[in-house]
Write a structure and sequence with these properties.
658 residues; alpha/beta; 5-stranded mixed sheet; 11% strand
Amino acid sequence: MTETPLPFSTEELRFLDLLAQRFPTAQAASTEIINLEAILRLPKGTEHFLTDIHGEYETFSHILRNASGVVRRKIDDVFGKKIAEREKTQLATLIYYPEEKLDALNKKKINTDEWYYVTLLRLVEVAREAAQKYTRSKVRKAMPSNFAYIIDELINETNSKKSDYIDGIIQSIVTIRRASHFIIAICAFIQRLLIDRLHIIGDIFDRGPDASKVMQTILNHHAFDIQWGNHDIIWIGAASGIDAHIAEVIRFSARYENLDTLEDAYGINLKPLLTFALTQYNDDPCTCFIPKSSSDETNRDTSVRITTMMHKAISVIGWKLEGQVIQRNPQFKMENRMFLDKIDFQNETVHIEGKDYPLKDSYFPTVDPQNPYKLSNEEQEVIDKLRFTFLNCEKLQMHISALIGKGGMYLVYNSNLLFHGCIPMKDATTFDEFPFKDGLVSGKALCDKFDRAVRRCWVNRKSTDADLQPDYDYCWYLWCGPASPLFGKKKMATFERYLTDDEGLHKEAQNPYFKLRDNEDSCKLILKEFGLDPEKSHIINGHVPVKLLKGEKPVKANGKLFAIDGGMSKPYRKETGISGYTLIYNSSSLVLVSHEPFCSKSQAIEEEKDIISSRDVVEISPDPICVGDTDIGVELRKQADDLKRLLQAYTVGVIKER
């Protein structure tokens, strides 16, 4: 009699044998299957999307702490009119800044035993509301370890017959003087539960003063991803030792009088640049290079004056280095971005697009008219020392490592396509192309090619292999190239803005994408290119501030695209009229939250001033979205299917229970 062949391949049995090490019995496998299939029916976690933070740490931190207004909404849901508005406001501020608020209340002698008792009860109710849509297992993992057992008991024990038990726990916490510690722990727990996943759609760096604090806050979050922005890519390039990016990072920091981020936050030694600038430009007014926030008057201040000279020195070095990249890469077709060879030093003009324009500054003592893009020996020494510092700054390397590991050119997540800048387009039906060595590339393939080039730059950042030069140059192109998905403009008019008065030269024409993103069919084309259902999916985009004051709207293409750069960075607020957006995607809807400017952390604590946020529900799901409908759900189903096969293997005896 012939034995029936087993329904398992040899390879599958090897896999199931490994899986059996985690689930050694049929009962263990069955229990996990039941658990996974139950999780699939739970409401999906809440995702928060933010973009273009640009170093605005206090605003960004507060938006995370108040969960874009969700904390206050939870308090309103729980207490309604049971407690006064001022009590709700104080409770909200306590959740945002528990340590600082407790200190402030202690100085006013407000936090009596009675206050602690009432406050603890209220915080437990808010925590219970925040935890209700998650499994007990997931909630336990979110609990601070030092109070996990107590928080678990308090938020899960709702039996009215055990009210004395709950009361006893609260009284004991107060009596043994652990109330402050418990408040700090449960407030952190509430904050964590209200943002299940954080999506950062690019531009963490530049302009604002505290990009390093922003990065550290993101790194401390329990679940996040980052889509690289054009300002992030120059920091990635600088930390990878790319000379042109190093010059650009310093130039941008000097322009916005933000060298402290480099020197104090990251410990970058700028002394070689300072020494060189003092030597070359000490007698030069450098008027065109006075930082943006300063003026001719403030330029007399010693620190501003030093920044101004350093600004000019690194700008010239940068223009030389950019010219070298363009000369190496004729396929970039960026020769029109080279200007040093077009300067007439005798007449103090520059030849641009067939016309001579007067220069506002023509004093460039290190530029050799016969070889204008060659660094002088002194400039080369400066850039060599700066490269060494960037490559060996431990904190910067750690932050950029996370930016690489958790980041990318784009992300497809839960039927949403996330990217910072654009998908370069020629017209409504055609993607723009870029010439890599193996041919012309566009659309998703273009983003993938650039993504891999950036990762190779990072992995090989201390290599001297000349074969890696193309990757370094592609990384530079992402910052300012006309077909760059991160930049999205035909040119970066840095030289013209600094040195000419002609406003026509200052204009930076955008890629057609930024007009086409108002068109539903164009957005559907992009979604289809990335393998998404164009009828159900969305594009979430940053980079270009939404000009609300001019009537522009963040919701575009009949709800297919959300442009969520709302001007968190202060220089952009005059265009947007607000201080940023958060897009919130929960189990029932997509909600766009707009934020008014943040006062300050001290005012938030002392005066209990919150960010005023307005909510606009932009899409409602006809049915609640469950975990099973998400990308995580797909993975959990695969795990459940694998366990069902293991259970079958146990049943027929091909895998032994252990």
